[in-house]
Amino acid sequence: MTAQAIAETVFDILYLSFALFSGLIMAAKGRSPMVRRAGWMAALLGAGDSFHLVPRSYALWTNGLEANAAALGFGKFVTSITMTVFYLILYYIWRDRYRIRGRRGLTGTMWLLSALRIALCLLPQNQWLAYRPPLLPGILRNVPFAIMGILVIVMFAREAKEHSDPVFRFMPLAVGLSFGFYLPVVLFSGIAPVVGVLMIPKTLAYVWIVRMCWQLYRQPNGRPATI
């Protein structure tokens, strides 16, 4: 038993419980399609991350990360797919929140980026089950993912400011922080494992996103009168 194993396990239990329970409550009891969609998004976040975090906790309590590389790698693969869908759902929440109509080009771009990201994740060159997979595929598969994040940041920043949105006014910051903490891990964790600690504030950024969605659930119709 180590301090790292205890700290990570407690943190992961709290995080996964919050994402899953709040997501399922919003999905089941949400008073609008937007809130229910936000609930499924949060639940997907928790379910997807559990594929990586549960094996990681198990590895820390048993024979170490390297001995459980295959399970951890498969978990990272699943999480990569679910996070792509997470941002696609967030795009549709943006459309619902601000009553966006049309924008077929933007919608097509988000779907294309999602499909490209998932296709890149499926390539065998990723070597998901290896303890130290190659860096280049990791960079390539995150390019469309990062573009999706940038688009989401710009979209929410523009509309939240225009509508003085009290719920999503910090959504651009939360998404920006999540990517800001995540990308250094992709680039440098192989040569400097300590960089992996940035996954903690990255996870807290996602908690913040889910917390904003929870505010929608707490409102009468999922949308204040000013929006």
Quick summary of this structure?
The chain crosses the membrane at residues 6-26, 74-94, 138-158, 170-188. Keywords: Membrane, Transmembrane, Transmembrane helix. The protein has a single domain, classed as Up-down Bundle (Rhopdopsin 7-helix transmembrane proteins).
Structure, described:
The chain crosses the membrane at residues 6-26, 74-94, 138-158, 170-188. Keywords: Membrane, Transmembrane, Transmembrane helix. By secondary structure, this protein is mainly alpha-helical. The protein has one domain (3-218): Rhodopsin 7-helix transmembrane proteins (Rhopdopsin 7-helix transmembrane proteins, Up-down Bundle). The protein is 75% helix and 0% strand. It has helices spanning 3-29, 33-61, 69-97, 104-122, 135-162, 171-188, 199-218. Helix 2 runs antiparallel to helix 3 (69-97), helix 2 (33-61) packs antiparallel against helix 7 and helix 5 runs antiparallel to helix 6 (171-188). The longest helix has 29 residues, at 33-61. The radius of gyration is 18 Å and the shape is globular. The mean pLDDT is 90.
